[in-house]
Specification:
Length: 477
């Protein structure tokens, strides 16, 4: 158990904790850390607080700064990958033979390439996620879990959580720790990227369209970004695939119109998992938007650049150098965040990976090409899945990754309706990147904030929306 952070005697002071719980929940509601309820996900009459930790969790300052510093390089790397169709084809060729979802995305990518891109502006809003791995010699290092290049969430709500933790620490009379809570405003930075793209598109009446899910519990997270845009006098509309299918079209210049409004930027907060595409119409709509003159956030190739298969291919010797020639320091900075990633492609290399996984399943995570939490396979189940495959080509839908082992810390996870108990927790640090490219020129490339999510160590997988992790703040130590 980590010793830095909030002392154990505070965590075990029951009277204090009870008082803080009540204060914390009210503070969260008053600060707008909101989520719609499971029962009424599409209305705001009844809302609750988004789950969060009672206390901030310790994060070593040097590793935190390392994560922030490498972000602009990840932005650049993702963008370069998205512009390299040969690499994407090579990296994903085995995956798309067996994974239907990735194959469908890839087909759209191919079609757009064949036709030629209508729009040369791209806006990327991503979040690179890390855990702090404990080495055998007692040290910790920053290791990337994944990078999310589509619909990366919680940039809005995480702009509000610092105030709540500051308030709690004031009431708890922990003033030294209170000073260490950082300001954070990813929503503003994400909106800045969208606003820049909107400006470059160059039509004052055109709108930014948030493409949203049918079930919208996390709408307030979007609203923070949306309201930043409105405050810049940039009009925003929210639409689902179905709406765009019914009222969307391209004109002869491929300008995208939805409900009679020209769309300058499509911001995907949906479309990242198979269930999001409820019919073939959703796929038709995705293709239409990708073909259009609207700026996509992200475009289809940037979406593909965020797949776990691409992440694994990047870890091969020489691949980073291919994207970043003459930048050995940048390559080293990126590579330092990689943990072991292994191919499951057909052939000797993949066979070796399987043998390795079967021998020590607890050392690895088996990952399919999915997003949104709850899809990974851990421990004994890795053996069951690998051994249970009827055709060994099925394995190429997955990658294998070293399991990262962060240091557990005590904290309380606050969830509506859940009884309070001291939990042993693990944290995951996310860093938000925002960039805009026009043709060959990067016109914006920034690190725009962070997100700390914490879960009980009983859970192997994560995700706030998946109901496992909760929002948190780093307490730099
Ligand atoms: P998703 O795209 O579904 O979020 P992730 O790769 O982030 O997929 O995995 C989901 C969760 O599983 C993470 O938030 C983390 O809690 C856990 N996880 C993923 N990879 C690892 C790993 N290599 N070591 C330990 N935990 C992991
Ligand atoms: Mg993800
Ligand atoms: Mg994740």
């Amino acid at each position: 158990m980590a010793t830095a952070g909030i002392p154990e005697e505070v965590l075990r002071n029951e009277q204090l904790i009870q008082k803080l719980e009540e204060i914390a929940k009210d503070a969260a509601l008053m600060s707008g850390i909101l989520m719609r309820t499971k029962e009424t996900p599409n209305g705001s009459e009844v809302v609750g607080f988004a789950p969060f930790t009672l206390f901030p969790s310790p994060v070593p300052k040097a590793l935190f700064q390392q994560a922030l510093a490498v972000q602009v390089h990840f932005n650049l790397l993702v963008d370069k990958i998205s512009q390299n169709p040969d690499f994407l084809e090579e990296a994903l060729s085995s995956t798309i033979k067996v994974d239907e979802f990735t194959a469908k995305l890839f087909n759209i990518h191919r079609q757009v390439l064949q036709e030629g891109h209508a729009q040369s502006i791209v806006v990327g809003l991503n979040r690179s996620d890390y855990m702090l791995d404990q080495d055998e010699d007692g040290g910790t290092s920053l290791k990337q879990i994944e990078i999310n290049t589509i619909a990366a969430s919680f940039g809005g709500l995480s702009s509000q959580t610092p105030d709540v933790h500051r308030h709690i620490l004031k009431v708890a009379n922990r003033l030294e720790e209170r000073k260490k809570i950082l300001d954070n405003n990813p929503a503003a930075g994400l909106a800045k990227g969208l606003a820049k793209a909107w400006e470059l598109y160059g039509s004052e009446k055109a709108v930014v369209m948030f493409l949203v899910e049918n079930v919208q519990r996390n709408i307030f997270d979007h609203r923070y970004v949306e309201n930043e845009l409105w405050s810049r006098n940039i009009p925003v509309i929210r639409r689902q695939f179905e709406d765009v299918f019914k009222t969307g079209s391209l004109d002869q210049n491929k300008r995208l119109f939805v409900d009679g409004q020209e769309v300058a930027v499509v911001y995907f907060r949906n479309g990242y998992m198979p269930q999001n595409y409820t019919s073939t119409q959703s796929w038709e709509v995705r293709l239409m938007m990708e073909r259009s003159l609207a700026v996509k956030c992200p475009d289809i190739s940037t979406h593909l650049a965020g797949t776990k298969k691409v992440q694994q291919e990047l870890a091969r010797p020489g691949i980073l150098e291919r994207f970043l020639p003459d930048q050995p320091e940048v390559v080293a900075q990126i590579r330092a965040t990689f943990t072991g990633l292994y191919t499951l492609d057909m052939g000797a290399e993949g066979d070796e990976t399987v043998a390795m996984a079967l021998a020590k399943p607890d050392h690895y995570v088996l990952k399919p090409q999915r997003e949104g939490g709850g899809n990974n396979i851990y421990g004994r189940e890795i053996c069951e899945v690998l051994e249970g495959m009827t055709d060994s080509s099925e394995r190429t839908a997955y990658i294998l990754m070293d399991k990262i082992r962060p240091c557990p810390v005590h904290n309380y996870l606050l969830r509506p309706g859940a009884p309070l108990k001291l939990s042993t927790c693990l944290s995951e640090l996310g860093v938000f990147g925002a960039y805009v490219r026009q043709g060959k020129e990067m016109v914006m490339n920034e690190c725009v904030g962070h997100l700390l999510r914490t879960k009980s160590s009983e859970h192997a997988d994560g995700g706030v929306a998946a109901g496992v992790a909760v929002l948190d703040n780093p307490l730099l130590v």
